[in-house]
Amino acid sequence: EPEVTQTPSHQVTQMGQEVILRCVPISNHLYFYWYRQILGQKVEFLVSFYNNEISEKSEIFDDQFSVERPDGSNFTLKIRSTKLEDSAMYFCASKPGTSNQPQHFGDGTRLSIL
Amino acid sequence: EDQVTQSPEALRLQEGESSSLNCSYTVSGLRGLFWYRQDPGKGPEFLFTLYSAGEEKEKERLKATLTKKESFLHITAPKPEDSATYLCAVLGGGSNYKLTFGKGTLLTVNP
């Protein structure tokens, strides 16, 4: 069964450094998402991406965050200057074209900021 | 703003002991309610989508139901492998894209 894959599984970074989290969505999906989950808290929406542009973003997704689909298969989340509070599990998700269909999630990247 | 509240936060059952998990929601124009299972260190795994009040979906020992204010995930004769965190999420009318999640219910099934 096709699945969303994320790399790396764990990323440790010094505060202030840039980090890029990578995702390969399911191949025929058109909508792509990033969510995060701080330890012990809810899964929170960050951003959605469709047709090569951001379609919606949350207040968490400030100027320090950016997303890109550099080729036909990868989808990346970049944090320009990491803060301690960026430590969380980051999940990528994708779904096919119809808006009410379920989103399918990867297993996440655990980001630890020191 | 869409809100999702799940109860209980944690539930411990004996193998074979049936029970239900609750998901209460407040949303403007529900477009879909989703149940996911999350194992430790893994991403949410899709289980069910419910679109309108009265709808029911079943998969093995799990059955999801939906009313205008809440959804239930019924677990019949659970097994230890059903142990996981069960997440409820809604897609509201104010957004085409954003899922709003509850905190989840941590289910433990003892043999």
Fold and architecture overview:
The complex is a heterodimer of chains A (114) and B (111). Chain A has strands spanning 5-7, 10-13, 19-24, 31-37, 43-50, 53-57, 65-68, 75-79, 88-95, 104-105, 109-113. With 114 residues, chain A is mainly β. In chain A, the strands form 2 sheets. In chain A, strands 2, 4, 5, 6, 9, 10 and 11 form a 7-stranded mixed sheet that branches. Chain A has a 4-stranded antiparallel sheet with strand order 1-3-8-7, with no helix packed on it. In chain A, a hairpin with a 2-residue loop joins strand 5 and strand 6 (53-57). The termini of chain A are far apart. Chain B has strands spanning 3-7, 10-14, 19-26, 32-38, 45-50, 56-59, 62-66, 70-75, 84-91, 99-101, 105-110. Chain B has 111 residues and is mainly beta. The chains are: A mainly beta (114), B mainly beta (111).
Layout of secondary structure:
The complex is a heterodimer of chains A (114) and B (111).
Chain A: E1 5-7, E2 10-13, E3 19-24, E4 31-37, E5 43-50, E6 53-57, E7 65-68, E8 75-79, E9 88-95, E10 104-105, E11 109-113
Parallel strand pairs in A: 2-11
Antiparallel strand pairs in A: 1-3, 3-8, 4-5, 4-9, 5-6, 7-8, 9-10, 9-11
Chain B: E1 3-7, E2 10-14, E3 19-26, E4 32-38, E5 45-50, E6 56-59, E7 62-66, E8 70-75, E9 84-91, E10 99-101, E11 105-110
Parallel strand pairs in B: 2-11
Antiparallel strand pairs in B: 1-3, 3-8, 4-5, 4-9, 6-7, 7-8, 9-10, 9-11
β-strand number of chain A: 11
Helix content of chain B: under 10%
Biggest sheet architecture of chain B: 6 strands, mixed
Radius of gyration of chain B: 13 Å
Low-confidence stretches of chain A: none
Overall mean pLDDT of chain B: 95
Quaternary structure state of the chains depicted: heterodimer
How much strand content do the residues of chain B show? over 45%
Task: Show unreliable segments of chain B.
Answer: none
Count of helical regions of chain A: 0
C-alpha end-to-end distance of chain B? 41 Å
Shape label of chain B? globular
Number of strands of chain B: 11
Shape of chain A: globular
